[in-house]
């Protein structure tokens, strides 16, 4: 799954192993002097339409131009390439800061949209999980929309919307797992669970919005919720194979395992972060690319699981 979960886990692991991506090109004298000179000699100035439409200011454009000039010299001289304001020096495209991550975020969002239509068409209305499946897809679409926006232009508001939408996706995924794996069909219990998840989400957003935006807290909260979800699904999948006498075992449970293991392998891209290839593809964008087929596997599991569940009578 899942954009928020694995982003959080990766972030914690990176924090534990050191500051391998903590280089701050934006505090180096060479960069500061370049920006100061650019501001003094070119600003204010009318920027190209694409930059105005994506809300670039003259000062921000100076930062971008200086970052690229310094990176050009670093590559030519064989010296280290630095990050600036927490990001690698990507080539922008029509004002978009991280074109590859934007493209792959759109791809992930499209997977949810595509399977939303399939679920709505092919899942019988009598199956009690259908509404939860559809909301899962919609929450996924929302998460990747804001990922697209955030990677297009990094502002405090787009960052928060990306984090909050990803957090909602993560919490809803746990909610979905609990209902599906424990076959919770009692409406009172579902309502209580819905209220609990809603309170947790609102408390999480309120703390980050009105107290302080604590990245460490956000990471750990995501890891805790995500670990619960992963434990549930992996435990269920393993049980399908260690009890061969079970007539109700699901031969397709491997899809869940492959999805989880595949995402774990993709995390290594984040752990071994590197300057973007051709200033376009970095580890984070490739990680977004890898989640596209993994999410397709997830939806394949859902579609295979539905008729099996309905044969067991789990319907209203």
TrEMBL record:
It holds the Pfam family Per1. Residues 1-22 form the signal peptide. It comes from the Eukaryota. The keyword Cytoplasm does not apply. GO terms for molecular function: hydrolase activity, acting on ester bonds. It is a multi-pass membrane protein. InterPro entries: Per1-like (IPR007217). One of its GO terms (biological process) is GPI anchor biosynthetic process. It is found in: Endomembrane system; Endoplasmic reticulum membrane. One of its GO terms (cellular component) is endoplasmic reticulum membrane. The keyword Disulfide bond does not apply. The chain crosses the membrane at residues 132-151, 163-182, 189-210, 216-239, 251-272, 284-302. Keywords: Endoplasmic reticulum, GPI-anchor biosynthesis, Membrane, Signal, Transmembrane, Transmembrane helix. Belongs to the PGAP3 family. Involved in the lipid remodeling steps of GPI-anchor maturation. This is Post-GPI attachment to proteins factor 3.
